[in-house]
Amino acid sequence: MDLFNNLIFGFSEALSLQNLLYCFIGVLVGTLIGVLPGIGPLGTIAILLPITYGVPPVAAMIMLAGIYYGAQYGGSTTAILVNLPGETSAVVTCIDGHQMAQQGRAGPALAIAAIGSFFAGTVGTLLIALFGPPLADVALKFGAPEYFSLMLMGLVAAAVLAQGDMVKSIAMVVMGLLLGIIGTDVNSGVQRFSFGFFELTDGIGFIVVAVGVFAIGEIVSNLGEAQERRVLANKVSHLFPTLQDLKKSWGPILRGTGIGCFFGVLPGTGPSIASFSSYMLEKKVAKNPDEFGRGAIQGVAGPEAANNADAQCKFIPMLTLGLPASGVMALMLGALTIQGIQPGPQVMTQKPELFWGLIASMWIGNLLLVVLNLPLIGLWVKLLQVPYRLLFPAIMAFSAIGVFSVNNSAFEIHLTALFGVLGFIWMRLGFPLAPMLLGFVLGPMMEEYLRRAMLMSGGDPSVFITRPISLAFIIATILILVVMVAPSVRKQREAFTD
Amino acid sequence: MPTVHALMMKAAGVLLALTTAAAAQDYPTKPVRLIVPFPPGGFNDIVARMIGTQLSDRLGKQVVVDNRTGAGGVVGTELAAHAPNDGYTLLIASLAITINPWFHKTSYDAVKSFAPVALLATAPNVISIQPDLPLKSVKDLIAMAKERPGKLQYASAGVGSFMHMGPELFKQMAKVDILHVPFRGAGPALIDVMGGNTHMSFASVPSSITHFRSSKLRALGVGSLKRNGLIPDVPTIDESGLPGYEFSNWIGIVAPAGTPAAIVTRLHKDLSAIQDSPELKKQFANEGAEAVRMSSAEYGKFIASETARWGRVVKKGGIKPQ
To answer: Cα-flanking dihedrals φ and ψ of residue B80, to 5°?
Structure first.
């Protein structure tokens, strides 16, 4: 009953005209920056932070939160339409989402992304309201060994991501790992491959790599075959998903939501791991795994739900412990501090209007996003008919602005151009890009956790199997290996006896 | 002939002095850039934005806050060090500018590259430990560390961060061996202490205070010589077992070296007035920071002594990478 009363209280707070307006502004701005490549919620919230000085705390937080999850929605739009992840987490959506768009099914892809995100957002919001504090305590149980074992499981399962040429996929994972090494080694403070550039001491930004290889690389490589692509884009069959699409999607959406909530609660997992994991799982459980990479709607529904659930649940450590799980959450904490509020568990009791108002506004915001996005689908799809000579320069310009806005650094624009060239070469040679990005994201984190675990245990590797949570992940990893290797071994043997 | 030459040089010198004096009088004629070498949302950024708004009113020209992040503050600091010294570029300086040159091959010198303008505030660190560790004072901590050399671990925000230097100074003064476990940023470091993995952290007061209140962390001692207003019950490290220990982060404003003295004086006056404004006072109180007043010259000496002090700690501890 308490929860019920609290939620009613929250809704009465969030539905005040002023808060509703700020919520709407937030999700609208969020959607826009999500659509624009490279410009992420981090930069936008940073720019808008000073504006929140004069706004009451509840309204300020509602707006900033709206920008954050609005961007998750918008990010999938560019991923699907122009094969360009507007957001870190939308990389996976590119794989099948853009394939669907090429087959004239951009409408259903966009709609299922919105529906999946809405469902995941609703579950995530409920989870925060119901179990926020106990879940945060669970997250605290994750130390370096647990995170390492979890990531190990992720990387092993990533082999499923491999499409076509296995060797090329592994090569690209290694390429990603190598790129991830660049920067300061956390454990010793030593610079690795920074070549004296201070801009490289914090490593290469994800946005730089993603925009470079996807946006620039894709554009350059498309210029050679523009005629062919335009025909595909014009062949829009229908805007909304068919009954069969929905039937195929509800399973992935449910599973994706679960995965997203799991990773969202853990503050030490970066973005995009949730969506990668969901994609791998869907490909594994699908009846026709061959469809993946060729426009499977499950490959959009699952990861999109996962990434929105993840985004929503990142609020749990922030709201209940006052701990930032990501850069955006750190900014939100900063926003609270500016308002004179000490973030932490006492916010819930001392500022209930803020806590419950924000939670209620998240659900309202998610609803607004669906209402905002579904009618826009027709408009977005029309964007595909914009001639490339107009669309490409626009994408390039926005990408450059977006990349610059992350650190106000021109160096990163040059770096993006370099990755554009690399992306073009890789694309032409048929090297898949997603495994590279996975290696790039997971590699440095795995190294960091592994070395920290070893440092803390005094070099004793048994920590990974003496700690129960870590042991569970190690066992799961072995199981995945067995399940994955067994069929191919059997196939080979059959081929041999034939 | 040489006399003519000397005369011309003199005339040029007078002319130059006149123009700079005139420039200082007109100052500012265009927006002033205030570089923050850290990302938005942190303490440095929040203070910069508050000062930016108020300084804009006083100067009659916009003060633009420019976040130039990277390499623990080196990127923004280098940018400021090499900017024109005409008073239109200012830098939010903190403890980091005196530590970084000992860890990176910086192209700036914390003392020679900058004209000190004003020190604004200092904020102490606080030893935060796992609540169930059987320790009551800093004295107990030192005793336990001596008993189990190399076994107690502290979490930091990374190599060369102030969460690394504070404990390093502690180690050297107390002659104990505690293990450094670096993280990416203060947040993950504190999570790890709360989760019961690492034993302690020397963090800033605001980043730890909510966890003291919820009993997920326990405060053992603050690094300033006076107790801190936010946590008045917590003794200083100095009184609780390690006499003479003093470690605080600080925030101030510097300009590129060679910025006209008249402009520095003008800014110092304005900043001193802003220090007294209720907004900034409130913000400092929120952060457990204490406003400090120093003349520009004293501030310069302070930067020099801090730089030398960390140089000694880094050398003695043998913690310089490469």
So the answer is: -70, -40
